[in-house]
Design goal:
Largest sheet: 7 strands, antiparallel
Number of strands: 10
Low-confidence stretches: 1-9, 175-194, 200-218
Structural class: alpha+beta
Length: 218
């Protein structure tokens, strides 16, 4: 019954029946995070997650996913080492037009939106030991934030599988993928790091969105 309720909630949320475009980023994130997502429809070695209708997997490689929705590309990175070690989240230091630390139960992270040099917006959300990055037009910000946090909040790790990984496997994973969450590194190890480089084109700006246009309303 709980799964049915959550599915109905997500259906209403993504269909616009709960005024996505008229809601604040804070409200959208909290509505999803506090719903305690317990449904999944996409399965991988060591984890599974829920992929909202309209989003499709274009590529999948070793705990990284390239997800498309029309012309939008979501880059999902899973931080297995962070999950296994229960590491703290490294919070960003740069300025942005929107920033929020996320702490809901034992899940932590942050949501950040920055304006890029080409007048688009980089949405970066780290939550539940995973990260999503996507560049969007301003009119797509609310729906993108909603879909990204739905995916991240729904991730469920398979502890029995992960606990069986050998020390060599963990070291290999750490060497290959730890750089995904560290933009200061210059080490080039995977194609997915190149995807992140393509996204990493934003530039700090003092401009801010019109919050009267995104403030929640009844």
């Amino acid at each position: 019954m709980k799964k049915v309720f959550v599915l109905i909630f997500f259906g209403l949320l993504l269909s616009g029946c709960v005024n996505i475009n008229n809601s604040s980023y804070d409200q959208l994130i909290e509505d999803v995070a506090l719903s305690d997502v317990k449904i999944q429809n996409t399965y991988r070695r060591g984890y599974k997650f829920y992929l909202p209708v309209g989003l499709n997997i274009e590529d999948s490689k070793e705990y990284n996913e390239v997800i498309k929705k029309d012309d939008l590309v979501f880059y999902l990175y899973i931080d297995l080492i962070g999950y296994l070690n229960k590491d703290d989240v490294a919070l960003p230091q740069e300025s942005s037009i929107y920033y929020k630390e996320l702490v809901y139960g034992d899940k932590k992270g942050y949501a950040e939106i920055k304006k890029t040099e080409n007048e688009k917006y980089l949405v970066e959300i780290v939550y539940n030991y995973a990260k999503i990055e996507v560049i969007v037009e301003e009119e797509d910000l609310n729906s993108t934030v909603t879909e990204a946090i739905i995916v991240l909040a729904s991730i469920e790790y398979n502890d029995s599988f992960l606990s069986g990984l050998s020390e060599e496997s963990l070291l290999s994973y750490k060497e290959e993928f730890v750089d995904i969450f560290n933009k200061d590194t210059t080490k080039d190890t995977t194609n997915f790091l190149k995807y992140e480089d393509e996204l990493d084109i934003y530039n700090g700006t003092d401009s801010i969105p019109d919050y009267d246009m995104i403030k929640g309303s009844d």
